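Protocol step 4 of 6: structure prediction from sequence.
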Amino acid sequence: MTPEADSFGKTVLLVDSNQTLGEMRARRLRLYGVTVHTANSIEAARARLKENAYALVLVAPRENPEDAIQFHREIRQHNPQQKVAFLVGPPKYLSFSYGQNVIPMSVRSDTWVDRLKGRLASA
């Protein structure tokens, strides 16, 4: 099953155990025309990845960064082409390799969405 494409044509899987912050991020992405599927745990994300294809898997590694890193390795092992990004720190920080190359974004709340849109456009 492939997620339905929207006007932007890309679908993101957002993995965030903090339901409030995850929904805020999902709403923000949807305002920019991105289709967002959410998962509140890595286990739920694994199930979604088996059922769907995504332009980007976006992970917020809050409570257990080791699980997020292991999840990233699993994704790479099963689908090396899958793009993965990590939301680290406040909503303004984004990393495409957790623990390395953290990209501080400006305080504007839509900056990280702009950065993701650029990343998705190349997907």
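Step 5 (inspection) to follow. The chain has one domain: 11-121.
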